Amino acid sequence: MCFVCEKEDNPKPAGGKSVGLDFGLKTFLTCSNGAQIPSPLFFSKYLPLIRACSRSLSKKKRGSHRRLKARLRLARLHRKVAHLRKDFFHKLANSLAKQYSHIFIEDLNLKGMVKLWGRKVNDLAFGEFVAILEKKTQVIKIDRFYPSSKTCSSCGTLKEDLSLKDRFFHCPSCGFSLDRDLNASINIYRVGASTLGVEAIRPA
């Protein structure tokens, strides 16, 4: 199963090129061609300052001018984080859209990711990035239950005992070994491309 999202304002992607993307915690995106985008985690970077401003706000008398100034200062910090994140997303989405006319991703289970990874998922804001990307190029979502990380991208064997601590995929059948996120992105690409059934597309 896959979902095709229409594109708007396409910044002239390379005709026919396609890529699979795997989202992660430390690495924001791993591409099926081997490229990796580190996670920016803007909120985490500004968290000490945000906490300091929050403590300062809590100490100010309610209704006072100082409390108002402290509240405005905290709001500005949150706006700055949101702006930095959105700017990063737009630049990354533009770069991807210029390179690829078809992008394959998993239909993300954001609630499940929050339970698994906690607050950092909200900082990474995968859903916001995907929404931006969908406006710039064609995004095809594969079934969220497809075991992209546990499937060998070389022979197709399913490795049930792969844990989150395992950063490399080692196939028990053919001996193939690869970074787990790259392995997943290759599988996402293949499933998306085969389900879409477009002969014109080609990997990057």
Could you characterize what this model shows?
This protein is of the alpha/beta class. The chain has a domain at about 1-35 and about 100-204. It has 6 helices and 9 strands. The protein has helices at about 40-60, 65-100, 110-115, 120-125, 125-135, 180-195; strands at about 1-5, 15-25, 25-30, 35-40, 100-105, 140, 170, 175-180, 200-204. Strands 1, 2, 3, 4, 5, 6 and 9 form a 7-stranded mixed beta sheet that branches. A two-stranded antiparallel ribbon has the order 7-8. Helix 2 crosses helix 5. It starts with a strand and ends with a strand. Residues about 1-10 have low confidence and may be disordered.
In short:
With 204 residues, the protein is of the alpha/beta class. The chain is 46% helix and 18% strand.
Any idea what the radius of gyration is?
20 Å
Q: Roughly how many Å apart are the termini?
A: 23 Å
Instruction: Look at the helices and sheets and give the structural class.
Output: alpha/beta
- Strand residue percentage: 15-25%
* Fraction of residues in helix: 40-55%
Q: What composes the largest sheet?
A: 7 strands, mixed
Let me know the average pLDDT.
89
Number of strands: 9
Poorly predicted segments: 1-8
Net shape = elongated
What is the H-and-E element order?
A: EEEEHHEHHHEEEHE
Number of H- or I-type helical stretches: 6
